[in-house]
Amino acid sequence: MRFRLLGVLMCVLLVAPFGEAQVVPGRWEKVDGLPVGSPIVITLTTGRKLDIDFKESLNDLLVVIEDKREIRIPKSDVRSVVRLRNDRLRNGVLIGSGLGFAAGFLSLAAFNAKVTASGPIWEGEALGYYTYAGLVGAGIGLLAGSAIDAARKSVEVLYSR
After folding, report:
1. What pLDDT is recorded for position 98?
2. How many C-beta neighbours within 10 Å does residue 102 have?
3. Contact status, residue 95 vs residue 143, Cβ threshold 8 Å
4. Which of 62, 67, 81, 113 is a plausible cystine mate for 158, CB 3.0–4.6 Å?
5. Is residue 114's pLDDT more than 90?
6. Cβ–Cβ < 8 Å for 138, 72
7. In what order do the strands lie in the sheet with 153-160?
């Protein structure tokens, strides 16, 4: 019983970060809470998309800034509002360096495990070599993970009709 409870707890902890609140159609609360100057993309009912900066949300108007001009858009003309955000680099760095360390460590371990006529290539100093290979792999993985995350943008839907 104790192991089942521990298993359920671990599953909840592992899955919880991937849960994301959904937008309730027709509700403006997320748009109303935006800080002034936030870059947003508004899709109008005509299909036209506007890349603009948010200023304020009134009862039936959105006030936005485009090229240093203030524009008032009726909320009835808006189909959706989304915000583009840069992905944080931290998770890419951690995942990349972890996978790189494992790849470097295990590849050198597999190479050393190759048995020659006299046995393995390294005996006592093998752990040091494995660690150095893992650190080189971690550096390569760190660069690859941060480059992938820097190029990735996430989209958050703030309003949908």
Report:
1. 95
2. 14
3. no
4. 81
5. no
6. no
7. 69-74, 61-66, 49-57, 39-44, 78-86, 153-160
